[in-house]
Amino acid sequence: MDMKLNAERIRTLREQRAWSQEHLATVAGLSARTLQRIEAGSAASPETCLALATALEVPLSVIAGAQPPADVSAGPALDKPPRATSSWLTPAVLLLCMVVGFGYAIGKDMAERDNRATADCDPDGSVCDLSRRDAGTR
User: Fold this and answer.
1) Global pTM value
2) Considering Cα of 53, then 58, then 60, then 62, what sign does the dihedral take?
3) Could you read off the pLDDT of 14-48 as tens digits, one per residue?
């Protein structure tokens, strides 16, 4: 079931953004010829109507003719204000990854040194005193 759209509203919204028909068609995922037909007054499929509304960042009712178009010169209206966490979250996660990686590298190095020291001990399991052992070999 095709929908009749308000061709003049679509053209006005497109021109407010300084978009050509080809650009709007590309953004909406349509062919330029389809958009030309719609702006000439032809009906469109529901999928095409949704694609146009999404590309123009307006509710479907605006291009269908139920609501007057909003002024888009100031950019799209946001339903919610942007979150402040987005400005610090990425650096915080990166810092955390760096600290964890640095701690892992230090811990691994300490464990390898401990393993080497343990390997140098006497096979009978006695506690190693490297200073005495080194002094006895000289």
Assistant:
1) 0.48
2) negative
3) 999 999 999 999 999 999 999 999 999 888 888 89
